[in-house]
Amino acid sequence: MPVHVTPPTFEHHREPLGIGESAPRLSWRTVTDAADWRQAAHQVEITAADGTVVADTGRVESAESVLVPWPGPRLGSRERVGVRVRVWGEGDDEPSPWSGTVHAETGLLEPADWTALPVTPDHDAPAEEPLPVALLRRDFTLTGPVASARLHITAYGVYAAEINGEPVGDHVLAPGWTSYQHRLRYQTFDVTSLLRTGENTLGALLGEGWYTGRLGFHGGRRHIYGEHRALLAQLEIGHADGTTRTVRTDEHWRTTTGPVLRSEIYDGEVYDARRERPGWSTPGRDTSGWAPVRELPSPGAELVAPTGPPVRRTQTVAPVEVITTPSGKTVLDFGQNLVGRLRIRVSGAGGHEVTLRHAEVLEHGELSTRPLRFAAATDTYILRGRGVEVYEPHFTFHGFRYAEIGNWPGPLDPADIEAVVLHTDMARTGWFECSDPLVNRLHENVVQGMRGNFLDVPTDCPQRDERMGWTGDIQVFAPTASFLHDCSGMLTGWLRDLSAEQLARPDQVPPLVVPDVLPTAFQDAGAQAVWADVAVLLPWTLYQRFGDLEVLRTQYPSMRAWGEATIRLTSEGDGLWRQDFQLGDWLDPQAPPDRPGEALTDGDLVANAYVIRSAEVLAEAAELLDAKGDAARFRAHAQAVRERFADHFVTPDGRLASDTQTAYALALTFSLLPTERQRRGAAERLAHIVRRASFRIATGFTGTPLICDALCVAGEPQLAYRMLLEKACPSWLYPVTMGATTIWERWDAMLPDGTVNPGEMTSFNHYALGAVADWLHRTVAGLAAGEPGWRRLRIAPLPGGDLTWAKATHDTPYGRAEAGWRIEGVGRDILVVEVSVPPNTTAEVQLPDGTDPFEVGSGRHTFHRPYTAPNWPPAEIPHP
User: Fold this and answer.
1) Is 745 an annotated catalytic residue?
2) Active-site residue, 466 included
3) Checking DSSP bridges between strand 378-382 and strand 268-272, what pairing results, if any?
4) Residue from 466, 716, 726, 818 carrying the catalytic annotation
5) Phi, psi at residue 508, to the nearest 5°?
6) What's the whole-model pTM score?
7) How many CB atoms lie within 10 A of CB 262?
8) Which domains occur in the chain, in start order?
């Protein structure tokens, strides 16, 4: 059988230009149809930019192919290398053919590499009103042909660079949002083809973005990070004759304003095409009216290269319907709640003003803007009046399905408007489908919600005056996210921001949002379980899903700091963490619309359950990192709180102090019940509660990711299926029946009569409650990682409900894995399970017929087993 090796990848980079690692780890995949194929050895060859071989490992006896340590000399700044790999399978005398060669290049690895200074167009005192987008430019002359050129660039704010009138790269909202006071991300672009002998111009648009723009709810605040926008750019040019030239931001740059009168994250953009400056970034333009820039000191924050992909335009969506509302407004329906902005083609008289308003839903037939709160989410375009004009906003984004088109000149052709989808450009890695179309739509809603909310940081919603990196949301959703997309690089960078924010605080408690832009009053509520536990549980999830031990090593100071904080919190009283307020099971469906934190489950019960879970995970991480003392300390901490938890919250019969779905889900899935009698009693009680609730969901952020697993632990998987398939509110499928195309923040964000929930916090794109998709992948389809990083798979499908088939696919670090089942036979009495195991891995297969698990090697496998359908549907307990 032929063996093919894919070109290697570097760390978690999709595009290894301007990377920040001097010894990047390598990964590759082997593609072969040979059954049970396993790698026995590999060989890595590294070449310099001129083709000289600088390292050749020869044959290395090793089965490792994921995040293999760098086998060559450490790289310096700006160093470019090529890497190729070949492998030997077990028993092979000859190696595979060489993979293709992939080139990687480092960025500026040392602070001294930066000679540019930030320059700002702002000379006056900080403005309390939105600023127009600035244009900045620098002219320079090149005396000979260019062999190579790299632009290293970032901003206090957001930028879009141009050279000689051509855009640089395809990034959107660069450099993205980091904890600017600690870490400032820069990008590196290959701009060789944009330069020429003679006159050249480097230009940039500079907007406020997250740096000086308004952030936060209740009106928000401006200038959270600083008073002035700034651009930091360093263009390094190598000529064909070996000479070099650097063009950097300094006092020689000039600035002015142009057509973008304002461009804000929440409120949108105003663009006056009459104020355009054609050719503003091309040589030979008259800049006599432009003003000088002002130099600022070198950044105090660490300048860091990206660890993940940028935000890009990933899709365009055409409207599916033109709606005339009861008040006569024209609204376009794009058929999908999405995140991005509109691109329009329009003709009309100069000065004519078109408005584009965005919202997620209609209410009473009109655009529903109340859920946006203080976000205007409106773009305004003022025509120049010459020919067909094409417009797309620059430094804003909106969450919307519907767009109200105001004052369109002449008849509207919907073909002249399209939605441009924006998100971090992660590779899709996971898929699921089954025989129930509503469940398929639910899963697609999870995917779409993740795309919209993974916009540089994992946000809580993309439409209202918030859009923040809430820590609790990503903590519960990370297992789902890491199956659906390769979010490793993005979340690794976000975790470094979390660590920087957390360790800079006196109490070293993780903030509620990262980057932290909440007013001090929010932090005065005290540490919050579930949210703060992201410091421990998210690195652990990434380690489990991507097999990257360095994530644990890098994040360990942050993980340990939260562990120590929980020791302090539980030592202040009777050995349990007690606090007046916990976010707890946030958005319990029983909570009043205006008080989403009033969950039925005791916040102290939730907090202490999470103390135990995080301490146990921290002990395991410490063991892996050879921190034996810490491992023992946190293991003892978990045991001490576990004993107090059982004494305080659990009766001898397994009843919990909070008689709720969430409480029992925590107790069963976190193994908090010490005796068999308590475990059996809790399982029976949870089943009773679920039946009595007519299988409707009664969990919030904490319980929702766990409830289906808890029912399986309780020996009641068919009750989990029954909850999954319930359509009445509250349930996962209720929003689907109401036309949802993303996951809602509230189970009843839209009421059955089509009106919007009266609470002020109602987002229709909020991924947390979509964490159930992880159970769909692992249990319904039966595809899960059996060891960290998918070196070993666990195939354990559990058919149920009235589903007749289900399957899941995941692109693991070793290749594509698949698991699926279907029911066949005249009497629907045969279960067929089909499995695909990637090369260089094995799988443990547990079939639902009760037989012992067994192991299979790589390749495709099919199993047939007798099948007895469950009694369906399960009986509910009628209310008295």
Assistant:
1) yes
2) yes
3) parallel
4) 466
5) 55, 35
6) 0.97
7) 20
8) 3-106 (2.60.40.10), 114-304 (2.60.120.260), 311-424 (2.60.120.260), 788-866 (2.60.420.10)
